[in-house]
Amino acid sequence: MPQPDAIAWGTGKRRATTFVPSNPYGQLPVSFCRNVILILLMGVCTAGMSSRVLAQATPSDQISQVSVINALLLGQYQGTLPLKKLLLLGDFGLGTLDHLDGELIILDGVAWQARADGTVRRCEPEMTTPFAVITPFDGEETFDCPAVTSLEHLESMLDPRLPSRDAFVAVRVDATFDLISLRAVPRQEPPYRPLAEVVKNQAQWERKKITGTLIGIRSPAWVTGIGIPGFHWHFLSQDRLSGGHVFNCRFESASVTFDRCRTWMIQLGDSLETQGKNLNQDLSKELDQVERQRGTPSPTQSD
Ligand SMILES: [Zn+2]
Fold first, then answer.
1. Tens of pLDDT along 69-111?
2. How much distance in Å is there from the Cα of 202 to the middle of ligand 1?
3. Residue 34 reports pLDDT greater than 90
4. What's the domain range around 187?
5. What is the CA radius of gyration of the chain?
6. What is the Å distance from ligand 1's center to 217 Cα?
7. Are residues 147 and 129 in the same domain?
8. Cα-to-centroid distance, 2 and ligand 1 (Å)
9. Number of domains in the chain
């Protein structure tokens, strides 16, 4: 049986021949075997699977999450899952890295790190993540999106074209952006401060006339406390030199592809049990500060 390390790291595409052929959790280390795995089946989970994906370890319509958002908000930045194992769960996603060291971007099966100094580098297989969301991206439908003047505008254009708001949807937007506003969180050292405090020192910048891809995950409102309700966007430029968490964007036209995810899997690391944090609290205000910020200045005023 091939080991997870046998995955063609960084080849840009996951191939069935390099994937573990059965249950991926059997490949995880002992610590992860003790993890609680919550699988919430939404609809008929076998619907929509392609023969290609059935040959792989992770169902094509599964969206997987490492940890819960309240843990990240409370300062749990210690990486728990190596990226080489995360990539067994998909080829499209986003998150952050050990020590909250920047923004994690997963596109076409390759993991990238956008750091607070504005640089982007390819992740190493042994790097770990404390929070990530990932899915095997099998585009169900592609459509053209006309001009948008802001990220909120884009989201309002997308919602009527996407499945129900109660569905998890992965959204890929390819465009040449007239402007995009990005941020990356700076690496932290313990004792960790809450995320809402850390983002006060986040690096923000803008890029103009840049071609690239938005990696978007839209989650239902009812994931509050566990995931990030609504849209969450990261960006990676075509030349792989620029990326980050997206505040705002503007473009004349874009190609949009989406993938509905019917199975939600959450992997809880041991650290959740030992940190003594009270995860059972309403941190939606903090989440709005951290993830729901929308960019300023208005892109229409910034040329
Ligand atoms: Zn983000």
1. 999 999 999 999 999 999 999 999 999 999 999 999 999 999 9
2. 12
3. no
4. 141-260
5. 18
6. 10
7. no
8. 33
9. 2
